[in-house]
Known about the structure:
There is one protein chain. The protein is mainly alpha-helical. Helices cover 46% and strands 9% of the residues. It has 13 helices and six strands. It has helices at 41-52, 62-78, 84-101, 111-123, 127-147, 174-181, 186-198, 202-205, 243-251, 273-290, 306-319, 324-331, 336-344; strands spanning 16-19, 22-26, 34-38, 213-218, 221-229, 236-240. The radius of gyration is 27 Å and the shape is elongated.
Amino acid sequence: MGRPRKHNPLNLPPRVYAKHGAFYYHHPAPDEHWEHLGHDVEKAKKRAADIAHGMDDGFGTIAYYLDEFIKASRKRVAIGDLAQRTLDDYIGNIIYLKGFFGKMYPVGVEAPAVGEYLDTMKEAGRAVRANREKACLSACFTWMIRKGMGGVKSNPCIGVKRNKETKRERYVEDNEMRSTLTGAPVQVWALAELVYRTLQRPEDIIGWTNSNITKRHVGDKVIRIIRTKQGKTGAIVDIEITPEIDAVLARVKADKVVGMTLIHRRDFKSYTYDGLSSMLKRLQTKVRKEHKKVNGPLTTMPSWGYYDMKAKGATDMWLSGVPLEQIQVLCAHDSVTTTEIYCKGRWRCIVSPNKVVVAV
Length: 360
């Protein structure tokens, strides 16, 4: 046991030191890392006592801070500062992060370790998923830096190139859409139609209730609108109720569903996005079987989902001459350039080749 410290006004236990306005525990060899104990002296003493008595519960590790990050994210959802969908993604992402980084301490995580994680996951066939998990880890580090936790001063995820992703350029043809949705359950059809007409995220649409339908005065006219708060950006968008949208609202009996979501189950409870997506996939499987003896695009129809309806709607609007700026607002893109790429990337029209006669 080392000699007692000459100057110890806070009566700190052995191996606990005050540095830079916080408390740290210096673990013995062979590890010898400095564990950040926070700014509360009593909590620092308790943590030191737990370590001394072999009660190491992982405090201060990446696994510990990931759990604390989730707790903080839940509070943000409660006050409307974070979308529930984002929280759900975080919860799903930390599983693999804990397995790889869990026992490490924040100050010991550097960029090469983040790169190794991406490479390891890519080899396991999880390249794209690993990118999302890296984003979650980055958000956690940003939160720790902002709160002064973990003793970290920089985010090791910044500057680490993510795994290459192939952009989805699926364009659902009209006959694919009709064949799948003709005779489909009202809920499945209604969500697809509303995504196609409004270009809103399906997760936002399934949360719409009768209260989203309202009226707005524009000059001397009164226009019926759907007022929605986009979960991704938080922006409020007023969407005019056209005859096409009105037909969808009439079929789901929007005027009689007070107190529940417009698209709901038979027991009046709300649908989940995954639940409706599964129903859509089953319908596509049925369509393929019905057309297996018929030559044509429906025989090998690739799978498509509700987000493809959003892309189809944006592309069809652009091809019909609607200004990109209007499509940009509906899609919640940061710039009109993003919207242009989003639409043109799915354009599959036939174009004429060069017919110029070369002079002899």
